[in-house]
């Protein structure tokens, strides 16, 4: 009787432990958000050049201490902060990077963006009467 009771208790403990373990697991999206937040808060700033944009993936390059890095960041979580024509993002940008691992960088996160506004759009002004070019 005692052995059966101890066996049942052990099974219940294992089930509760498994449930707690699965519940406490951090998803990939949560890990990525934590990485971006850490780099935003503790990282150094630098200059980058966005070289390509495909869907919501930003490809960029930068140089730290004479070492060139080319990397990308999935910005799909920030789609509402990107322009309709993502080609306008190609060009200079700011980054934040981990000073202990400069290859670990971000170009946009929840609290910050190194993306620069697109090219200025100028509207032609109508000429006043009697004005000649």
Structural features:
single chain, 133 residues, alpha+beta, five-stranded antiparallel β-sheet, 2 helices
Q: What does this entry look like structurally?
A:
It is built from two helices and five strands. The chain is an alpha+beta fold and 133 residues long. It has a domain at 28-106: OB fold (Dihydrolipoamide Acetyltransferase, E2P) (Beta Barrel). It is elongated. The mean pLDDT is 88.
Helix content: 25-40%
Overall pLDDT: 88
Strand content: 25-35%
User: What is the overall number of helices?
Assistant: 2
Strand order of the largest sheet: 3-2-1-4-5
The CATH architecture of the domain at 28-106 comes to Beta Barrel
In the CATH hierarchy, what is the class of the domain at 28-106?
Mainly Beta
Basic shape: elongated
Number of strands: 5
Give the end-to-end Cα distance, rounded to a whole number of Å: 105 Å
Radius of gyration based on Cα positions: 25 Å
Largest pleated sheet: 5 strands, antiparallel
User: What structural class should be given to the helix and strand makeup?
Assistant: alpha+beta
**Secondary-structure element string:** HHEEEEE
CATH topology of the domain at 28-106: OB fold (Dihydrolipoamide Acetyltransferase, E2P)
Low-confidence residue ranges: none
